[in-house]
Amino acid sequence: MRSPHHITTHPYTNPYEELGRLDDGPPDAGPQDLGPLDEFFREDVPDEREEAEAQDDPWAPPNHRRNGRRRRRGRFAGLPLALKAVVGLVVLAAFLSLADRWALLYTERRAAATLKDRLDLAAAPEVEIDGFPFLTQLADERLDSVKVTVPDVAADRVSLAQVTATARGVRLDTDGPTSVRGADVPQLEGDVLLSFADLNRELGASQVTFTGEGHDRVRARGTLPVAGHDLRLRAEARIVREGDRGIATHIGGMRLDIGELATYRPGARASEGLHLSRQSVARLARETRKAKALLSVPSVVRRLGVPDSVVREALRNESKLTDLTGTPRFAHRAMKLNLIDLALEHPELLKLLGFDPALLDALPRLTRPVLADQLSLGFRLPEPPSGQLRLRDVRVEEDGIRVRLEGTGLAVGRSG
Question: Starting at the edge strand that comes first in sequence, how are the strands of the sheet with 388-396 ordered?
Fold first, then answer.
């Protein structure tokens, strides 16, 4: 048993030498002795020969653009040949379609300008050429369909709001794709609108407005200035075809109201002329002075059909006069009196009844033909140099008078 004071001593070792031996590893260790983790880190360590070669080469910045171009070219080069052909055909078709549409728009503008000059139009029309492709039609010198819309065409006293015509199977007369001399139009269908808005503006010197009434009638309402008086005008116009190329208006029911005093209807029949209104006849029963003046004229008494004895008694007794002028028979006969005849024989009597002598002098000049001419809505289609252009139907609509037309064997330009 050892003594507690016995101490065992070991030879002294330097700890740094122990660490150095661990770092150096075995002296004969080779690549085959490395573990998987050592191999992984060793790949990142450059070789001494590679470091020497890298130091000899001059440094240059990386060219990312060249690498990207090579990458993109490589991707496109990898597409199948059939897909490349499809892409090329699509691109070619797009260019051809664009060229076709450009040629179409150019031709439509040229045609619109030519029609404006040759037809002496105020504005260039709208030209629409149907069918695709257009270039093949132009090469074949034949267009499937051409639609022309012309606004504001002068027609006699009025303007046509819109003229639309569609030509089919148009044969072109050309000197090449860029030079069209004319065209043959074997078939044409058209539509003409005579709008009430234009009629109200162009025939509005008399402040008359036109509205549709039924499929063949137009109603005219407004005022007509006559001798300083605004007379209220009423009239009816029946729209009819006039031959193959025109429409006419038969004006009827013409009436001019002079306030509540009288009504003037132009014409020579008994129901026409200048007549007292119902309100004026009713006032005669209250205004004895005017009633006595009227019954004091023998020609008036004869036309009224009142016996002389009744007239003499009414002139002496105002109560009898009131009874006479208040009867429905007297009012009916008084309204049938043609005051135009009385105006020539007894102008003072008409003045007493409230008529202006200047108006009485102007009314006989407003004959039926004069008023009918002011309200005429008729027009005729121009006669074409070749072929036929005729009306097919005339109809009154809400916005105006619509006329449908058709044409055959027409020619435009030098063709024909």
Answer: 126-130, 142-155, 158-174, 180-195, 400-413, 388-396
> Is residue 213 within 8 Å of residue 237, measured between CB atoms?
no
Q: CA angle, 193 as apex, 189 and 199 as ends, to 5°?
A: 160
> In what helix (H) or strand (E) does residue 82 lie, and over which residues does it extend?
helix 81-119
Please give the structure tokens belonging to residue 9: 């001593």
User: Tokens 């200048």 label which residue?
Assistant: 274
Closest CA to 203 of 217, 222, 216: 222
Distance in angstroms (rounded) separating the CA atoms of residues 61 and 364: 108
Q: Phi and psi dihedrals of 360, rounded to 5?
A: -65, -30
CA–CA separation, 416 and 413 (whole Å): 8
Q: Tell me the C-alpha distance between 296 and 118, whole Å.
A: 71
Name the residue type at position 319: S
Rounded distance between C-alpha atoms, residue 138 and residue 228, angstroms: 64
d(CA 211, CA 218): 6
pLDDT tens, residue by residue, 145-199: 888 888 777 666 677 777 888 988 888 877 665 566 777 888 889 888 888 887 7
Rounded to the nearest 10 degrees, how much is the dihedral formed by the CA atoms of 119, 124, 126, 128?
Answer: 70
* pLDDT tens-digit readout, 260-306: 999 999 987 878 899 999 999 998 888 889 999 999 988 889 888 88
Query: Torsions phi, psi of 293, nearest 5?
Result: -65, -35
Structure tokens at 15: 């700890």
DSSP string, 180-247: EEEEEEEEEEEEEEEEHHHHHHHTGGG-EEEEE-SSSEEEEEEEEEETTEEEEEEEEEEEEEETTTEE
Q: Quick one: which H or E segment has residue 146? A: strand 142-155
* Residue 408 and residue 188 in contact, taking contact as beta carbons nearer than 8 Å: yes
Rounding to the nearest 10 degrees, give the CA dihedral for residues 402, 116, 243, 197: 30
Indicate yes or no: pTM above 0.85.
no
Whole-number Å distance between alpha carbons of 415 and 2? 145
